[in-house]
Amino acid sequence: MKCLPWAACVLACQALIVTTACCASAGGSEVKPKPAKAAIQKPAAQSAPSPVEKEIRADASQFVEQFNRGAAAEVASHWTGDGDYVDEYDQRYVGRKAIEKEYENFFQQYPHATLAITVDSVRQLGPETAIEDGHSTLEIWPHPPTFGRYTVVHVKRQGQWRMASVRDMSVEAPLQQGQMADLAWLIGHWKAEHEGVLLEVVCRPIANKQFLERSYQVSKAGKVIESGTQIIGMNLLSQQINSWIFSSEGGQAVGTWGPSQHGWRIETTGVLADGNITVSIDYLSHPSEDTLVWESTGRQIGDQPLPDEEKVVLKRQQPPSDQAKGE
């Protein structure tokens, strides 16, 4: 497997696009290339969901259908008898009966509420334990929709998976098309350098300021070793911020942006020029107007996990107004 230059982590690492240069981590320690055998591995096929994941996803779909019918008892039946539920207001309900009562009260107050969820992941921790993570959208007309994330601990009881503990967390609404100004701090010229490897990123608004274009270039000893372009904007079909990245090596990836505690969380899936599937979860923050911090976790190429990247810090090279004259 070829290695990623340290500086390319900021954008290329989001897509896990691999270049021919040797890697150096943000901490400065050299990462040795793997043997040639690893470089010629066939692209790993995306694994099919396990029987446990299929069952839990099917239960999630059934939960939504029952919720949207206002069937409190059926909704509560997904919990164990002594399970608990903590809502987005940190109110805790213990036991199936208490949870059923809470849903009865909710459906009486909001008889036309509708729920949509997306199961992001299902991880089996043992023969009788699994964790489900996802995000949700709750619509109560005529109010605007509310958005949340949730975590469920499932346990197996008498041959069936049941929810032992559920935690709901509210999140800010996804950015709407007219709110791209919230990402205006990205506009400008950014630079980071480490052990002779230089990364430069230029971000500018395009298409009547509805999208951002980030171009990046990685060079060493004055020679460009990789470059690429990323487009960031509202996906009108999903009503979420997406990014599309294209590398000079031929790789490409799509990222889904959501708010995090200190900035943005970006879930990215891509494909290298050789056909290998890549994934990563990245965090983007700006502790000051002139500082951009990038962290990358959950990185994988095919079926091979990669170590997390340490923080990469870029500094603004000129005021954002100098780059804000885009289309």
What are the SSEs and their pairings?
Layout: H1 12-15, E1 23-24, E2 30-31, H2 36-39, H3 51-68, H4 72-76, E3 79-86, E4 92-94, H5 96-109, E5 114-126, E6 129-139, E7 146-157, E8 160-171, E9 188-194, E10 197-206, E11 211-220, E12 223-235, E13 240-247, E14 252-259, E15 263-271, E16 277-288, E17 291-301, E18 304-305, E19 309-316
Structure description:
It is a single chain. By secondary structure, the chain is mainly β. It folds into two domains: 183 residues, Calycin beta-barrel core domain (Lipocalin), CATH 2.40.128.20; 121 residues, Nuclear Transport Factor 2, Chain: A (Roll). The strands form three sheets. A ten-stranded antiparallel barrel has the order 9-10-11-12-13-14-15-16-17-19. A hairpin with a 2-residue loop joins β11 and β12. The longest helix is centred in the N-terminal third of the chain and has 18 residues. The radius of gyration is 23 Å and the shape is elongated. The N terminus and C terminus are likely disordered.
